[in-house]
Write a structure and sequence with these properties.
single chain; alpha/beta; Aminopeptidase; 2 domains; four-stranded parallel sheet; 7 helices
């Protein structure tokens, strides 16, 4: 369980995250040179020529810019094969106004390992999980009622490694995952919820856990309804959830959300009920007729 001073420091950190909507202050483009000392809040955009001046991949937040009007802009060119995580494409010199501000903010946060804000409800902020959330999670999971139907957290170093890999392999690739739930009024972490990817299944899985202190206050319903709304907005029209049939609270919540029992599955020898919800997603817009 975290000490009161560590918890106070965490709340200060959390409120700073909540109040800071834009961590990216500006972008700077380098065509034939490299920046000197890196500054906070700057995304450095490098041309292939600038990147070639580096002995190794830069240790500052950068994206590679490819001028597609040049002959060497094919995906097999050395620039694309450099190991750079983010590549921006345009015709002519780099112009930041050609790129969406939210996308550049996302690139900067990914490179700086700053968790992305996903959505807000009346009472909660839902954002990606950070290693700094783990103290709060260990406190929540210390209650045996929480782990009655949920897998417990791993040993600290393993959990930190898993959280980092989850950020890189789930959030960054799928754009969703299990997120951290924060009570906006106090900045406290109160649980986790989101859309996970489970091996062997085609549909994302709704997962949720609210700490005992905040249970029976409607938080789980509020958060999960918002997550399903986010799913529809992002083209996810079918979501499943696996639950132990003895977990009455989970079954009750799923039914309130509109899920129906689909079948029984066996995971690692454990029988679980699979609930599914089908939602109406917006029709894709048709191209204008000629």
């Amino acid at each position: 369980m975290p000490s009161e001073s560590r918890k106070a420091n965490y709340i200060t950190y959390q409120k700073a995250l909540m109040n800071e909507k834009n961590f990216l202050k500006k972008t700077e483009y380098f065509r034939n040179s490299l920046p000197g000392k890196a500054e906070d809040g700057v995304l450095y955009v490098l041309s292939p020529e600038a990147l070639s001046l580096c002995d190794d991949l830069p240790d500052f937040p950068y994206a590679l810019y490819i001028d597609t009007s040049k002959e060497d802009s094919s995906k097999e060119s050395p620039a694309y094969m450099s190991g750079t995580r983010y590549v921006l494409e345009g015709c002519g010199d780099f112009d930041p106004d050609e790129f969406d501000d939210d996308y550049l903010e996302t690139v900067y946060r990914r490179l700086m390992k700053i968790p992305l804000d996903i959505l807000e409800t009346d009472r909660c902020l839902i954002r990606e999980t950070s290693v700094r959330d783990l103290d709060e999670f260990y406190e929540i999971y210390s209650d045996p009622e929480i782990t009655e139907f949920l897998e417990d957290l791993m040993e600290r170093s393993a959990e930190e490694e898993y959280t980092g890999r989850y950020r890189d392999l789930i959030y960054e690739i799928y754009g969703h995952g299990i997120w951290t739930v924060i009570f906006k009024e106090t900045g406290e972490v109160i649980g986790r919820a989101g859309l996970d990817e489970r091996a062997g299944f085609d549909d994302p899985e709704l997962g949720f856990m609210i700490g005992k202190k905040w249970q029976k206050k409607g938080f789980a319903l509020e958060v999960c309804e918002a997550i399903l709304g986010w799913a529809v907005e992002n083209g996810i029209c079918k979501v499943m959830s696996l639950t132990d049939p003895l977990n009455e609270a989970s079954v009750s919540l799923l039914k309130k959300l509109g899920f129906g029992r689909e079948d029984e599955v066996i995971i690692n020898g454990e029988k679980l009920d699979r609930y599914v919800i089908y939602m109406r997603c917006p029709e894709p817009s048709s191209p204008p007729s000629s």
